[in-house]
């Protein structure tokens, strides 16, 4: 039985608690949260033991799940690694690049499992593309949300856009060559809306727009590659593939069009979407990596790369404003 300690019992922390309770061979030993109101809610609802300092909780567990505010990620991860505990930490990995580099060093020395909570990797709309050959050369992203003061301890880049940065880096097997960005702080002290262009060595270009001051929600990625278009709706959990038919292409629907180079057959397919719980899947994957001694699906290096690009974007925005 894997013993788990929860660090942070706020809005997202409660989702993690609910899911850990449903995962086999995992036991929640207790939680740490300095907020008395949050703590009372957890004790009343879940009957889970509250620890009043993080060190005492870490001493009683095998692994930690850190859902605390970003400013506390480094200190909690550092303490856990030095105590020999496996680490799951919500994105972003840390509050600064120096902190992130130190965590990579500690994780490498410790030989412990370390997973970063980029939950969109487990979104069923994204998982539906498993087995498809993806080689995008142009990517368009829109992630917009209604304003919520809860997420404003970091910029919209580190709050929302970093999800898409991770997905793009996972898709495009090439190094970033150039970044341009612009952002505006509207409701908080950091950018609340931003538009970014990322260019890669292989020629791929990604345009990303993120906003947390919209009146509607949207989480879509559109991929364009030779002979194909792929649309992923992370919010509605839908995936669409449109491409020139191949002999082995089994489309749900197809039709012919006339082009300058003759007739072309367009095939449209909607891969089946499994109604899965993304948070539960990522936590189960973390547990399985520990139990079976395998690599975590979102490694500390993955978390570092996404954070590195996010901070380069923030630097570009700051340069424009100064």
Query: What percentage of amino acids are in beta strands?
Result: 25-35%
Number of DSSP strand runs = 15
Rg calc: 21 Å
**Span of the ends, CA to CA:** 54 Å
Q: Into which percent range does the helicity of residues fall?
A: 25-40%
Q: Determine the CATH topology of the largest domain.
A: Dihydrodipicolinate Reductase, domain 2
Strand order of the largest sheet: 8-9-10-7-11-12-13-15-14
Which descriptor suits the 3D outline?
globular
Order of helices and strands: EHEHEHEHEHEHEHEEEEEEEEHH
**Unreliable residue runs:** none
Q: What is the level-2 CATH architecture name of the largest domain? A: 2-Layer Sandwich
- What is the CATH level 1 assignment of the largest domain? Alpha Beta
> By CATH's scheme, which homologous superfamily of the largest domain applies?
Dihydrodipicolinate Reductase, domain 2
Overall description:
This protein has 322 residues and is an alpha/beta fold. It folds into two domains: 2-112, Rossmann fold, CATH 3.40.50; 122-277 and 309-321, Dihydrodipicolinate Reductase, domain 2 (2-Layer Sandwich), CATH 3.30.360. Helix content is 33%, strand content 30%. It is built from nine helices and 15 strands. It has a nine-stranded mixed sheet with strand order 8-9-10-7-11-12-13-15-14. Strand 8 (176-184) and strand 9 form a beta hairpin. Helix 4 (73-82) packs parallel to helix 5. The radius of gyration is 21 Å and the shape is globular.
């Amino acid at each position: 039985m894997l013993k788990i300690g929860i660090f942070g019992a706020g809005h997202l922390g409660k989702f993690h608690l609910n899911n850990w309770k449903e995962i086999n061979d995992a036991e929640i030993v207790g939680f740490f949260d300095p907020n008395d109101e949050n703590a009372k809610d957890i004790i009343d609802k879940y009957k889970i033991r509250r620890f009043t300092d993080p060190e005492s909780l870490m001493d009683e567990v095998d692994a930690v799940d850190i859902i605390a505010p970003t400013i506390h990620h480094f200190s909690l991860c550092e303490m856990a690694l030095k105590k020999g505990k496996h680490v799951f930490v919500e994105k972003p990995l840390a509050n600064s690049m120096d902190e992130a580099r130190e965590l990579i060093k500690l994780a490498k020395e410790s030989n412990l499992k370390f997973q970063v909570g980029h939950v969109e990797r487990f979104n069923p709309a994204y998982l539906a593309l498993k087995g498809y050959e993806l080689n995008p050369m142009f990517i368009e992203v829109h992630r917009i949300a209604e304003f919520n003061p809860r997420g404003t301890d970091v910029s919209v880049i580190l709050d929302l856009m970093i999800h898409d940065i991770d997905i793009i880096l996972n898709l495009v097997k090439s190094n970033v060559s150039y970044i341009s960005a612009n952002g505006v702080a509207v409701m908080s002290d950091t950018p609340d809306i931003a538009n970014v262009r990322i260019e890669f060595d292989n020629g791929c270009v990604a345009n990303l727009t993120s906003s947390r001051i919209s009146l509607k929600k949207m989480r879509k990625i559109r991929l364009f590659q030779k002979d194909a278009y792929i649309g992923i709706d992370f919010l509605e959990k839908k995936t669409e593939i449109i491409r020139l038919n191949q002999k082995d292409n089994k489309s749900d629907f197809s039709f012919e069009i006339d082009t300058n180079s003759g007739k072309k057959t367009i095939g449209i397919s909607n891969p089946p979407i499994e109604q899965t719980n993304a948070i539960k899947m990522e936590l189960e994957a973390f547990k399985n990596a520990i139990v079976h001694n395998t690599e975590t699906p979102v490694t500390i290096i993955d978390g570092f790369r996404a954070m590195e690009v996010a901070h380069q974007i923030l630097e570009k925005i700051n340069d424009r404003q100064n």
